[in-house]
Design goal:
Largest sheet: 16 strands, mixed
Number of domains: 5
Strand content: 25-35%
Structural class: alpha+beta
Transmembrane segments: 21-43, 55-74, 151-169
Number of helices: 14
Radius of gyration: 61 Å
Distance between the termini: 199 Å
CATH topology of the largest domain: Immunoglobulin-like
Keywords: Membrane, Transmembrane, Transmembrane helix
CATH class of the largest domain: Mainly Beta
Protein name: Polyketide synthase
CATH superfamily of the largest domain: Immunoglobulins
CATH architecture of the largest domain: Sandwich
């Protein structure tokens, strides 16, 4: 066969050309693919293209790759390469052939043509000569292997870069694949990652920490727990468990933050507060246990509670964190945004207004702008106390009955006697998991904080404490759904103290149950050495009396002599009739001056009392308080001065004369009041509003006269009591003083502690009746005023009579006359005594 050798070489060259074209096209395709991958990676990593842009970019990349494949692989391989083209290329490389090779190929085709009639021998000679000549040349010099090798360098470099990128950053490569090829919404790792810090846990620094993650969707794959150590993030493996995942952290020396990453889902952040370990060295140290639940994008808040967000920014710290929020369930509602304040060290804080409705929110900062995760806040009614019940168990000494079981006080404010046990019962609106009663921090030794007993499905709470001092307390609640009462109600504790007993003494007609009270005890009284002084001691206390005594001494004695007295309690019916509060008791005592003794200063012997001696005494009472200790009370110091007959009679005479002078002033006052009303009745024709003020003033003036007359009546009675217990007046003198006392009572006699009966009260009543009626009925009002004037005239008459009787003592100014009267009084008493015998 002609040109067998040459055609074989040309076929070999054609084959190599196709191989080289395939290699060059393939490597150009690899280069294009590598460049598009790197370009797509870089652009999307830094620009974070949204899905639509990534979709368009993927289309552009695919078009570029298809173009390169078609342009540099498909088209070159489908293009026909003729023998002449190869021959021309060989001759170009071998000029010595002088176109023989192309001619030989053409002559070879002519020999195969039956219509070729030229000299075949000459043609064959040319072909053979060319074939011989071609055996000495290298046909493959026409192939440019260096070009092919050069075209492989860049594709290999870029392919190696892609392969290295995948090996070094498999996670980033996977994210790129999902985002730019599979067009998923996976997020790139950011320079800044914003976390919501959910909870804080306290751990000890002398042991490891086990973190348990509860998650229903846990699978067989492992997760990662990232925790910050110094300035670097370290990882701990989350191994699958039956209920989720578990990781163990080494001993921690500083506070740290951790979060979990499971199946590309990142949790919120959690804070570990490290504290000093308290376990003894010889004791086994159990690991710290920390538990979280995923997903953790749901928050439950109490209505009215403020949601305070603690936000942590990892990586590049942004200048601010944007909090985007809106109400849930509202269609077409736009997101509102607020800026969280920077607290330092990557911590930001934002506080929502009081929660009313459910909301949702997400956080953004720097390049963390994917709007994920979205947190849902469910707002529920907080746990509250719906009803309060309280029972008192009073201390036994008080004698008070405890609160009846079926009649509790329905509130939580405590007002009870010291030592009272208070039992409290509260009902709540939802089941409670934990409840505490909290007292002020500075009262913990007296009122320690305690947990309440939870009863009846968690809706009934019980506690008790003893009242020891004034205080306040709050009931904090944590419901089973995790909610707390953000504004617990504050209740007060008012301790009612057992007051000290009140003690007073009064002079009486005798020391018996039927004795009549004459007057209150005077600071100093004057008595004869032979006199007796009957005294009643009245004591009042909140809850009971345990001791009554009288303390006495004479002259300059240093020591008070104590004499216990019998305690006589009043009947309960009498107390109820008088509507008295507390317990009352009394006792009687008689000062027998004749039996009294005194030890003079510098002497050790006691002697009987005599003229000039002064007996001092005070009253003592003690209650029955056995909780804080008995309360005691002493009265003021009173005194009895021993005088002789003449001195005593003179002092009584002076008191009566003083009473007379006081009655004279009262008489002038009464006449003045009477004249004012007379003038008003004689002049006034029409009553004006200003007249009412006058009438009202007259009413008070008349009541004042009643009080003054009553005070003088009491003073006269005291004079009568003193004279009677010293036996210094005769029957006729006593009768005169009794008449004075009776007439004064006709003017003003007490009906209660603030009101009186008698002529003066009649005048005051008529005046006030006139005040009420004179504007509407002038005649009736003036009639009442005339009645008042009539009563005042009677008062004037009585006062003049009393003053006249008291005037009979004015001549007794000389001491001899007093002695004479005393002697006559004694003689008359002896005569009366003989008559009675």
């Amino acid at each position: 066969m002609a040109l067998k050798y040459i055609k074989g070489k040309i076929a070999g060259i054609r084959k190599f050309i196709r191989i080289l074209l395939t290699l060059e096209g393939s490597f150009k395709t690899i280069l294009t693919l590598s460049v598009t991958i790197l370009l797509s990676f870089v652009l999307d990593y830094f620009l974070h293209f949204p899905l639509k842009v990534r979709t368009v970019m993927l289309g552009i990349y695919l078009c570029a790759i298809v173009y390169v494949i078609a342009r540099h692989l498909v088209l070159p391989l489908t293009r026909k390469i003729s023998d002449e083209d190869i021959a021309l290329a060989v001759e170009k490389q071998n000029p010595q052939l002088k176109d023989r090779l192309i001619s030989a190929l053409q002559f070879s085709r002519l020999l195969d043509d039956p219509q070729y009639h030229d000299s075949r021998d000459m043609t064959l000679n040319v072909i053979e000569e060319t074939e011989k000549l071609s055996k000495g040349i290298n046909f493959f010099r026409v192939l440019n292997f260096s070009r092919t090798l050069r075209s492989m360098v860049l594709p290999i470099v870029f392919a190696a870069a892609v392969f290295s990128l995948y090996n070094q950053f498999p996670k980033l490569s996977g994210i790129w694949l999902n985002r730019n090829v599979l067009l998923k919404q996976n997020a790139w790792p950011r320079s800044t990652t914003v976390f919501l810090v959910r909870n804080e846990f306290t751990v000890y620094d002398d042991r490891s920490t086990e973190v348990n993650v509860a998650w229903e969707n846990s699978g067989s794959s492992k997760g990662i727990l990232w925790y910050k150590s110094s300035n670097f993030w370290k990882r701990a493996v989350l191994n699958p468990t039956e209920k989720g995942y578990k990781a163990t952290l080494p001993q921690l020396s500083k506070n740290t933050i951790f979060y979990t990453e499971i199946d590309d889902i990142v949790s919120s952040a959690y804070r570990l507060r490290v504290t000093k370990g308290e376990v003894k060295e010889n004791k086994e140290k159990k690991p710290n246990e920390v538990g979280i639940t995923l997903p953790d994008t749901k928050l439950v808040m109490s209505k009215g509670e403020r949601l305070s967000l603690k936000i942590y920014a990892s990586g590049k710290i942004p200048s601010g964190i944007e909090v985007y929020f809106r109400n849930k369930g509202v269609e077409d509602q736009s997101w509102n945004s607020e800026l969280a304040g920077h607290q330092g060290e990557g911590i930001f804080k934002y506080t929502f207004p009081p929660m009313i409705d459910d909301i949702e929110f997400y956080l953004e900062g720097n390049d963390d702008v994917d709007g994920l995760p979205v947190y849902n806040v469910e707002v529920l009614n907080p746990p509250t106390i719906t009803k309060s019940y309280m029972w008192y168990e009073y201390p036994a000494y008080s004698g008070l009955a405890s609160t009846e079981k079926d009649k509790p006080e329905q509130h939580g404010n405590v007002k009870a006697l010291q030592g009272t046990t208070v039992r409290l019962l509260f009902t709540t609106n939802i089941p409670i998991a934990e409840a505490n009663v909290l007292f002020p921090d500075d009262q913990q030794e007296v009122y320690p904080n305690t947990k309440l007993d939870i009863l009846k499905d968690g809706k009934l709470l019980a506690t008790s404490f003893e009242v020891k001092m004034d205080s306040r307390y709050r009931i904090t609640l944590r419901a089973k759904n995790g909610l707390r009462n953000t504004s617990p109600t504050s209740y007060y504790v008012r301790m009612m103290r057992d007051s000290k007993p009140y003690v007073k003494g009064v002079f009486t007609s005798s020391a018996t149950k039927g004795a009549v009270v004459v007057s209150g005890v005077k600071p100093r009284i004057y008595m004869l050495r032979t006199a007796t002084v009957p005294l009643r001691v009245d004591v009042e206390d909140d809850y009971g009396i345990s001791n009554i005594a009288i303390l006495r001494k004479a002259n300059k004695e240093d020591t008070w002599k104590r004499q216990p007295l019998e305690i006589l309690t009043e009947e309960e019916e009498e107390q109820q009739q008088k509507k008295r509060k507390g317990k009352r008791a009394h006792s009687y005592h008689i000062f027998s001056l004749e039996k009294g003794t005194v030890v003079d200063e510098g002497s050790t012997n006691a002697r009987k009392l005599q003229k000039g001696d002064v007996v001092y005494y005070k009253l003592y009472a003690q209650d029955n308080n056995n909780i804080s200790g008995p309360g005691t009370k002493e009265s003021d110091v009173y005194s009895i001065e021993i005088v002789d007959d003449t001195q005593l009679l003179k002092k009584l005479n002076e008191r009566l004369l003083e009473n007379k002078r006081q009655l004279g002033r009262i008489l002038d006052l009464q006449l003045t009041q009477k004249e004012k009303i007379d003038d008003f009745l004689s002049i006034s024709s029409a009553v004006e509003t200003g007249d009412l003020v006058k009438i009202h003033q007259w009413h008070f003036a008349q009541k004042n006269i009643s009080r003054q007359v009553h005070d003088i009546a009491q003073a006269v009675r005291y004079v009568m009591w003193t004279a009677g217990h010293n036996s210094i007046w005769d029957v006729f003198t006593t009768k005169k003083v009794q008449d004075v006392h009776r007439l004064l009572l006709d003017i003003a006699s007490p009906s209660s502690s603030t009101s009186f009966t008698g002529k003066s009260n009649e005048a005051a009543t008529n005046i006030i009746d006139a005040y009420k009626t004179i504007l509407n009925d002038a005649d009736k009002g003036q009639s009442k005023l005339r009645d008042a004037v009539f009563s005042q005239e009677e008062i004037v008459t009585l006062l003049e009579e009393v003053i006249d009787l008291l005037g009979q003592w004015e001549d007794l100014r000389v001491e001899d006359d007093i002695k004479r009267l005393l002697e006559e009084s004694k003689k008359q008493q002896q005569i009366l005594k003989s008559w009675t015998e």
